[in-house]
User: Fold these one by one.
Assistant:
Number 1:
Amino acid sequence: MSYRELPESTSDLEQEILERWEEEDTFRESLREREGDPEYVFYEGPPTANGRPGVHHILARTIKDLVARYWTMRGRHVTRIAGWDTHGLPVEVEAEKELGISGKPEIEEIGIERFVQTCRENLFTYQEEWEDLSRRIGYWLDYDDPYVTYHPDYIESVWWAVKQIHDEGLLYQGYKSLPYCPRCGTGLSSHELAQGYEQRRDPSLFSLFPVVSGDGGGDAPRRHLLVWTTTPWTLVSNVAVAFNPELAYVEVEALLGRSGERGRVGEEGGARTARVLLSRGRAEDLFRLEGSDGSGDGEGGSPERPRGRIVREVPSGELEGLEYRRPLHLYPGYREESGRLHPAEFVSDEEGTGLVHIAPAFGADDFELGKERDLPLVRPVDDDGRFVPEVEEVGGLPVKEADDRLVELLAEEGLLFRRDTVLHSYPHCWRCDTPLLYMAQESWYVETTAVKERLLEENASVEWHPPEVGSGRMGEWLENNVDWALSRDRFWGTPLPVWVCDADEGHREVIGSFDRLSDRAGGLPEDFDPHRPEIDRVQWSCDEDDCEGTMTRVPQVMDAWFDSGSMPFAQWHYPFEGEEEFRRHFPADIIAEGVDQTRGWFYSLLAISTIVFDRSPYREVVVNDLVLDAEGRKMSKSRGNTVDPWSAIERHGADAIRLYLITSSNPWLPKRWDPEGLEEIQRKLLDTLRNTYRFFAMYANLEDWHHGGGDARWGEPRPPSERPVMDRWLLSRLDTVAARTRQDLEENELTRAARRLDDFVVDELSNWYVRRTRDRFWVTGSSSDGELRPAEAFDTLHRALRTTSLLLAPVAPFISDWLHRELSIGDSVHLADFPEPSGHRRPDLEEAMEDVRELAALGRAAREELGVKVRQPLRRVEVVIPGGRTLPDSLVRVLKEELNVKRVAFPSETADIVRLHARPDYSELGPRFGSRTPAVAEAVEELEGSDARRLREGESIELVVDGEPAEIRPRDVQVLESGRGEYAVRSERGYMVALDPSLDAELRAEGLAREVVSRVQRFRRDAGLDVDDRIRLVVAGDEEVEAAVRAHREYVAGETLALELEVGQAADGRDHVTELNVDDHPLRLGLEPFDEEEAQPTG
RNA sequence: GGGCCGGUAGCUCAGCCUGGUUAGAGCGCACGCCUGAUAAGCGUGAGGUCGUUGGUUCAACUCCAACCCGGCCCA
């Protein structure tokens, strides 16, 4: 048996694994294997099947897959059912495009039947791509039997939920001012609104409403209310003005601009002064007030503010009920001459004027105030967002386009005070990008405000990653919860299951099942489909007493978020079937989606489950943020900076992408898609891992070692605790890394876990363990004495690689599976258990090895400083480890080899070459000496020699600092050594290394011998020899070289596998001959393979 | 305007919760090394007013406040 070579390319490897998964049905096997084990419940958020998947989807899918694989390896059964979100506006918008039509009237013209049919047909345009992509990136998900929100069974479950909500008394029909998309012809719910805020420039209009009541009559200049709006078109529907009794209001006598420029003020004779009412807080920003020093100039106010003088304070009692003349009498449906002032809390004076124009039909606050004050609802706008024809001047115009004309008219009336523009974010339709209008409409609501406290409680019990999304984004949002606008005046969606009597609106029934509907309607067709328009034809006679009416379904469909939020039960067709499955899979242990789902899926899940089941449907949420382009900009089709997931996979492989997305930063931080970062993870972690395996496989094959055993010459390796120190260390590290990785993954600290594995593989496994133990992997090497049995090295490295593949399995499922199959008996890594510590932890050893690595780094720096290469042995190094620790002999040996020195000496022996000094420990001194700390510390730093020595030996000393005594205890200081003399000294964080630079002939000779070995090795390779080919070797050079080789003859021969070594002979006639130069010495090499037959001594 | 996140080396990010020695990695750059993993590998070095200002403290990258910049979400 031998270890296979890794496939040449990442892509080949991943394809090979994909095929194995296919053949062996590994995903399903992983579920079968855990059948009956405790469930780890995971919900898949349904993507819209008619949108294309992008790289940002890979992030969420990587997280979800990672979690599911991890818990499967931990012995849990993790159901993963795919889902498709199939209803709603996105689908309808696509269908409109397909049919070449736009807007509700055109849809109705071609017929709902045909339109809905088109929606249905277009649904799964990209389904295959979604599935292919998921498969390719290793996202294991059950696509065979997905939940699909338009399936009748699914809809039936949704209806059931609506009925539950209705039975709780939380479903109602209302009339409210809602964001409304004039293009789509439907209102949007508050969470849909969340998707579509964009910066937009709108008019900022200050107008003057003449006061008609109160005194101040006579000759006094006419008084006006100063009123601000960013929607001039709503002035047509003005019915009142609101003020806040908590604010202070003033009357300003204003000198209004040069006449004509801003329109005339006051109809009588173009008077240029006027009395203007507004809040005090805004007066300074809008006027240059007399008596003020003008310090308000610059920011806030406009440079062209008119001059003004505060005439008096206006008590709010005076404001209430004040009557003004309405502007813009254009709508014949509302001819009221005047309106009044009403108090309202929502009025602020942070912007505007502290006086707010009220049009109840077109604003949420306005609407509420209108209801409270019984104001008329004036809505001269049709469902397409145009003024109705009978409106003078602007009839038929889309409202926003009427702004200019309306402002002109206002100016003509002399009521225009100032007109600017303002840049603010404004809600747009999240699908078609049309600016939304707030308009009063009839809609069905879920009274979520009634369960607000429960929502908050449940949300607080959810563990959010990161927590601030739960407490902040979600929590704040729930605090300000408004009722869920459930209905949509559209076509392709779950029909709202409400039937109303045409004779008496009060006769209503909410249908919660098909059976019930069948009872009512006297049977349903065999292949009943509950969609529009068929469902609209299901009617029955009202059975209220003495009612002759017919029960007809209301025309609306439901918000698609309600569909997806119903998936915990609807995916099982609960409660009609799947009772047991539902119980087993509710609530979810985890869900993981983008932060944009906070008010989307996260909310709809929470709201529905809280009402229906009185609890949150998920325990934990991992939130991910966007994937941005390399410059940190949002990816968007319009900007053309999207990254095609397929070409990225082609180029880097799925493992690399998954690792990159998880390691580059925490999931909830926005991430840049950086191709260089991708290459890095590929080169560092993945290539290092591959190389380490390749190294292992090469020598295991060469020496015929296999983890299955078999070759008797290996015998039994000793138990780990008796192996060489490097093995004990590596096995200890494996346990530590396994324990920490388990803990991190349990806590969903995915990034931390993946980064740790990265560090472990690159730094510890490859660049330390393998590098330091390489020569134990070949039997023939000169260092392979009995103590360093190769079998133990193979066994240790094999364990390490196998464990590493297990640890990496959740995040890098391909390479880990490939490796695991080679390193086990062919099993998939994904059917294995996640590693747990196996009792080999040796924290003291790990710490000591840290010391060694620290000292080695300093030693290399010192060598660098001396300009002496590592191949040249040095006599001695003095080292200090913080806290006066020393190293066991086994590690001293490691350090000696790493630094290529003959001797390592510790401080007790180093008195003559180091100088002691003390460094203050502020965390000890600070609390004791308070403000004297700096002075004491300074005194400590000046300690030397015997004082420092006493401290190091555990005695306290007395100092006098600024005339006051100060006791310095050993724990207050760290005693450090620094080198003296010609030693090369390096120190850092309490570690110190001092290298003795002196060389003698012996050391030089050894250095030369090593140099020769290195050249021979390179030459072997260049000559095309295999690493285990034996050779005949001839070495010649000057006297010094030849002497060095003779002195180290065995070493040179052993290292180079020279069965025959001649020194000083002519190299001519050998197969391979070369002339070189080492350290200014000439060197001639000649070598050829050693043919064993030929070598037999002839008889 | 409000909420949340972020601002640390040219770039990508740790560290901050729980204040304490000389703020760390990787990439890139410069220089060098090693090689029985070889179209790999390793090391050393240069490089930082820790966004700004103020405060608390013996001591602030860390805690507090205000502000600035970027992002997301909302009004």
Number 2:
Amino acid sequence: MSPSESEAAFLARYDPADYARPAVAVDLVLMGLSAGRPALLLLRRDRHPHAGRHALPGGFVGIDEALEDAAARVLREKAGGVPAHLEQLYTFGAVERDPRMRIVTVAYLALLAEAAFAEALERAPTLSFGTVALPRRGVADEAEAAAPVTVLSPTGEALRLAFDHAEIVALAMRRLRGKLDYSEVGFRLLPELFTLRQLQDVHEAILGTPLNKPAFRRRMLDRGWLEPTGRFETGTSYRPAELYRFRPTSPSQGD
Amino acid sequence: MSPSESEAAFLARYDPADYARPAVAVDLVLMGLSAGRPALLLLRRDRHPHAGRHALPGGFVGIDEALEDAAARVLREKAGGVPAHLEQLYTFGAVERDPRMRIVTVAYLALLAEAAFAEALERAPTLSFGTVALPRRGVADEAEAAAPVTVLSPTGEALRLAFDHAEIVALAMRRLRGKLDYSEVGFRLLPELFTLRQLQDVHEAILGTPLNKPAFRRRMLDRGWLEPTGRFETGTSYRPAELYRFRPTSPSQGD
DNA sequence: TTAGTTATTTTTGAGATGAATATAAGTCAA
DNA sequence: TTGACTTATATTCATCTCAAAAATAACTAA
């Protein structure tokens, strides 16, 4: 091939080396809050392998489909198209992670607001529900230790997850915790209008630890992300709190 | 299939659905320091597509090869087996990112100590060298803005990178910056024994900003990661600094 | 009107950080 | 040998952040 050959000519006879290829999939950690606890949406497998265990919703990536599009499609297919914040987590590629064949899976974290989470559970009756048991954020584990996460069924038994999905869920929790304080992920779990107490509840649920109230509100307000609406919550006994709205400041990148 | 069928029997006749699959590759950001600046090792492409541009070293993932193993293999093949810290960055899967065929690539960050970096450049004569021009860490860009990174040749011209590799390099820099202060990546760019001034130089090079010396040394020493050796640097004019060694405390996870 | 509960603000103190200064330890040149 | 010079290291002080506590405000229910 001469270097002056045109790019078009080169492409025309390009022969894609055909070695055996791993399959490429996406798996989604559909996370929301339920009764103040971090919760997941799972599918119970009724087939080999790992029949009877619970798995993350996922699907293969189409040959003409971008990774993000595949993740969005799986979200639509499995959770009925509820709105969610999607973010790539990590890619898992151990050789034996699926006994059927070699599958490389790109894990995504999908954050659903509480209403969307409940709606997904209604719309898709095959989805089941698990809460994440936090290993109690000890004092000295700031350095995101490899926290072994346990997923509990609504009745409180520990669920066995299929494949390496427990590892994926653990990573999702770790990522969420790590980003919570300096990114906007916390707001993705809330409705559009929310009180500072609700925001604090979300943070406490994810961190698994109580937070100082005045310090938390000052920090959040100083961030410049909160827009007071002048409206107040209703239906409460006692003094109603002001409702805020999330106002993203900069273009803000996902990681 | 009856649910009581044995798993082995099921696997025996499992027919892996054969849709067209994307190819899976790994690309490595080989990063080190050269003369106090962040630097990269690149390969100049002599073929279509993007002939003449510079690309990250990479390779396809074997059907029986874990992702990390593929990354380690590429490191061996392209950089002559120098030691490096390897860490998965992100997976890029846009449909048209390579005009030849659909390739999903898992990007890895490889950190080479200064000696290893120089050694790789010697051993692999096809590798070329670029420094990363930092867009000067402005005051208010703490929220990892999408910093457009420029890679410069040794003579100072801007290099054009192939494919989406500029994006990958930008992400690598962002990740490095983000983790620098609370993880051990800074030490991966240093030899086993180093002075506090060298450590500070590494941080300043990556952040692109000067740091307060006493505050920096206090912070680092308080981390508990530094083990004084009682030995001192030699060959310097003026007072020699003490040599320290990195001592990882906890098992410490990668991201 | 008063007790009870939660929202919000203010105050206080501890700890981390940045800047400046002081001291120590080496080389080099006279 | 001495002193100038340079850098490492230690100390001091002011500032800032943030947690904890206390005080105040706003509402409901009795």
